[in-house]
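Appendix B, example 12.
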Amino acid sequence: MTPFSSHQYIFLFVWTFAEQVGLPFPALPVLLATGAVAHAGGVSFTLAILLAVAASAIPDTGWYLLGKYKGARVLNLLCRLSIEPDLCVTKTRLAYQKRASLAVLTARFIPGVGVLTPPLAGVLGMPYLKFLGLDLAGALLWATSYIFLGALFHAEIDRALLILHKLGASFLAAALVIAIAYAFYKWNQRRRLLRDIRIARIDPLELSQRIQQGDDLLIVDLRSEIDFLANPVMIAGALRMSPSELAARHQEISRHAEIALYCT
């Protein structure tokens, strides 16, 4: 039994809950460690799985309700908090567009998608009881798979936990420095990208003023189908097409007017 097992139940619940709330605390290592500890008799497999399911499903319901009643603004908020804000909703949309039920069931297995799928299900009107059933089934499958995988590789995981216990604060400090450095790198990369394309951007107020002035503008609404369904209001006179249609319908875009592209 490892020193990690003394507060395993509390640690498992809090860490899993934190990940589903949207904090950058991956639950996978904790689930694997829990499986290793359970194999040694330190905790109950059944109770550990139930706690992981509860810790995952409770915040999922909250996100679903926020998505249902607050709309796409919830997704935008989550993406602004993400390290990959330009990709997070895109990955979720692609997973959800293929098969909504399967997306809810398997979302936790796809990095960067798990926390975004519940509010997206709410935004697009999936019935709550259907969402809850799929979400609970997905959480059960996810928790059971990784806890039993941890039990299967208990010897290797137990050795790793003992090493981490001996390293103590020095390991945590190193991990924190690496995480901060990576977050700074991604922030700086995004800042440079936005600086490079700023000259080609126009804010909504300026666009509204130019429309009122009668400028020769063609506005193309390039929101994805999911974003459009969540908020089907369009700018008057805009040409509507999804990004997937752009290659086939590009000839509809005039080459003689100034073009403003409107996306998510």
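Confidence is low (pLDDT under 50) at residues 1-5. Residues 169-197 form the longest helix (29 residues).
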